[in-house]
Recover the amino acids of this structure.
């Protein structure tokens, strides 16, 4: 039989632990346990010694609890060890037993709160932090963690109070100062947040978290260049910090530096593919690069990773809208509003979807509701101006836009507001002010770095004219598809292509497919197929099949499907070779009216030529050059030229000619095109829902003193 355990031996072991001689305490305790294996106190001392050395203490602590079931400290120690191993549910069992025996045990209260928070049960954690602070009001970690719970639940003022309470006892704690800055930032106290963040930086200039919080605050006050510097320092200090990379990429995107942003966000995804924010922000950049399908994948992944991500739902819906999946887009908007009923981005997306269907009153109501919720939301102001005629009665709208422009906004928002002001002043006939805002919008757009390459476009047109000359087109006439399904409406943007499509799509046998993105990539693929060979006839059936698959996917039983992609004027020769029986309608508008209308429009997918009058004039000359070639090369049965001004002067006469040209009988519904119920997502969706009027013809004369290089187009 073992001799009784000497109390002095226990005291000596406890002293070793308290003095930090942990390895010695462990060794001596194990030696005594060999003789006294059922001595709960020895197991307790061993467990504490192991914990403090960072070793696995759970087995020793479980044995302690088994032998000392009424010892609150034993249960608390086991709970703390399980917390360290992130075994939160098991930890809670032990911690609750500790508190049942000793309800005022501060460390058990804190560990319980931390475990509940880790399990996503933050509201349940609150009373445990508060009870711990009742016992020890100077417990800094309790104040900090309680502040974190308030912060995560959006109770920023209470979080701020907690951090300030902690700072009473440790005023030089950089972490607390940083947390305070974050709470102040989120509650809108940006100047206070800047002061607190800079104070934290002075205390610990190598804190990655502080650099991130300072960057977020600088970005919130519009100092984006300074924010980029802060995020950059965070990345330098910790290159594998995915969050810092996301913040840096998102801010670069705000400044129009999209390529840098895309590289950083892709790197963030490599480091942490499960972080929804990385996929979302990369999706925004891809969307702005017009890589819609890739953006869709990024937004979908973000929603998959975080189903309650309201921003990702709206961005996914916005991309789906451009793919004409309006029903799916509306579901995304509704999903975002389920998460946050006052989310203004979702309200504006719903408004755009209503406007796409011609429901402009319902759209305006949604835009106005967004402005009421957030008077500083730029998109709503732009949408209001886009979808109706503005008047001098819109003084409130004007004041709101001008107030916003007095702030430091992301580049895209600043651009959109200048376009909106241009539209407002044009509508109220203050043309000098209108042109000034349009010019400012276009100059700001140049910051994105797009450059119009006149030489490159000339070479491309040369190549097309050389390849698709008259002999080539005649030789390939019988090699293409016999389908008459497609009808191509081509011309410069803002030349009346949307109006033409709307008129034709009002015929019951016609489906308006909008702007189908196909022929630009098709021309590249075709060029590659014929490189080094003569012809490329074998590739044409592939193009025909792929394109018809694209059209029939959403056109039902229509006899004709209108593709009104204006830029297809570049590819009319290839289109005719692939579809020799298809009809091409070329809509022509006054050159200066056309170019100014482009210059005045905030296009999503327009080339860089659109933002400069000299470039616009050159682009228009190339357009005239290539369409003149098609007029000479294509048979009259394939190409019909429709003067826009003549169409609005004699709607019925030209509508009859177009229907006859595409081999369809007359239908009077085409005259009431503005009443046709269909989705239109182009920039002209409001105009095509109005009765034909002549106000857009000769509009350029209001801006005659500003047109500069466009004036020479009158001589063409």
């Amino acid at each position: 039989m073992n001799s009784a355990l000497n109390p002095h031996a226990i005291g000596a072991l406890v002293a070793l632990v308290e003095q930090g001689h942990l390895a010695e305490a462990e060794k001596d305790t194990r030696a005594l346990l060999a003789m006294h294996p059922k001595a709960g106190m020895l197991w307790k001392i061993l467990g504490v010694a192991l914990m403090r050395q960072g070793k696995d203490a759970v087995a020793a602590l479980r044995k302690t609890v088994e032998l000392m079931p009424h010892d609150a400290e034993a249960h608390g120690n086991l709970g703390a060890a399980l917390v360290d191993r992130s075994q939160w549910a098991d930890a809670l069992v032990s911690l609750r037993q500790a508190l049942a025996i000793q309800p005022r045990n501060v460390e058990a209260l804190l560990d319980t709160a931390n475990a509940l928070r880790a399990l996503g049960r933050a509201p349940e954690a609150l009373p445990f932090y508060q009870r711990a602070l009742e016992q020890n009001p100077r417990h800094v970690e309790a104040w900090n963690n309680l502040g974190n719970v308030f912060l995560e639940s959006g109770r920023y003022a209470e979080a701020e109070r907690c951090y300030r309470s902690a700072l009473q006892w440790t005023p030089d704690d950089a972490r607390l100062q940083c947390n305070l800055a974050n709470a102040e930032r989120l509650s809108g106290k940006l100047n206070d947040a800047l002061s607190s963040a800079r104070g934290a930086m002075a205390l610990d200039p190598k804190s990655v978290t502080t650099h991130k919080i300072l960057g977020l605050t600088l970005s919130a006050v519009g100092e984006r260049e300074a924010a980029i510097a802060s995020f950059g320092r965070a990345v330098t200090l910790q290159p594998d910090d995915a969050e810092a990379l996301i913040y840096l990429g998102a801010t670069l995107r705000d400044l129009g530096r999209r390529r840098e942003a895309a590289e950083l966000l892709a790197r963030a995804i490599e480091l942490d593919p499960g972080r929804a924010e990385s996929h979302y922000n990369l999706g925004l950049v891809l969307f702005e690069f017009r890589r819609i399908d890739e953006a869709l994948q990024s937004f979908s992944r973000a929603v998959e990773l975080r189903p309650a991500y309201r921003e990702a739902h709206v961005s996914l819906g916005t991309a789906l809208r451009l793919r004409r999946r309006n029903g799916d887009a509306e579901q995304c908007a509704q999903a975002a509003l389920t998460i946050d009923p006052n989310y203004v981005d979702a309200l504006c997306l719903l408004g755009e979807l209503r406007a796409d269907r011609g429901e402009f009153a319902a759209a305006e109501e949604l835009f106005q509701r967004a402005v009421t919720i957030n008077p500083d939301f730029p998109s709503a102001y732009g949408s209001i101006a886009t979808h109706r005629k503005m008047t001098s009665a819109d003084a409130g709208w004007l004041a709101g836009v001008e107030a916003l422009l007095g702030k430091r906004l992301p580049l895209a928002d600043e651009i959109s507001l200048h376009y909106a002001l241009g539209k407002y002043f044009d509508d109220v006939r203050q043309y000098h002010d209108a042109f000034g805002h349009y010019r400012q919008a276009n100059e700001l757009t140049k910051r994105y770095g797009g450059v119009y390459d006149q030489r490159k476009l000339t070479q491309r047109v040369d190549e097309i004219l050389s390849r698709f000359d008259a002999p080539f087109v005649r030789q390939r006439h019988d090699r293409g598809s016999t389908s008459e399904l497609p009808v191509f409406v081509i011309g410069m943007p803002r030349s009346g292509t949307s109006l033409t499509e709307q008129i034709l799509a009002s015929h019951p046998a016609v489906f308006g497919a909008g702007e189908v993105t196909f022929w630009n990539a098709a021309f590249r693929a075709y060029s590659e197929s014929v490189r080094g060979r003569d012809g490329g006839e074998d590739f044409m059936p592939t193009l025909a099949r792929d394109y018809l698959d694209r059209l029939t996917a959403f056109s039902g039983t229509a006899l004709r499907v209108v593709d009104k992609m204006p830029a297809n004027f570049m590819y009319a020769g290839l289109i005719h070779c692939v579809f020799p029986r298809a009809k091409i309608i070329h809509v022509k508008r006054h050159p200066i009216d056309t170019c100014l209308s482009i210059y005045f429009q905030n296009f999503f997918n327009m080339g860089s030529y659109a933002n400069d009058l000299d470039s616009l004039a050159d682009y228009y000359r190339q357009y005239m050059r290539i369409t003149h070639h098609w007029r000479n090369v294509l048979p009259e049965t394939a190409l019909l030229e429709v003067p826009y001004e003549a169409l609005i002067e004699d709607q019925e006469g030209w509508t009859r000619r177009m229907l006859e040209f595409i081999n369809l009988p007359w239908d009077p519904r085409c005259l009431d095109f503005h009443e046709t119920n269909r989705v239109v997502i182009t920039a002209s969706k409001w105009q095509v829902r109005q009765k034909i009027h002549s106000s857009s013809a000769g509009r350029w004369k209001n801006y005659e003193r500003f047109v500069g290089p466009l004036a020479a187009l009158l001589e063409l």
Summary: Strands lie at 486-490, 510-512, 560-563, 583-588, 639-643. Residues 613-633 form the longest helix (21 residues).
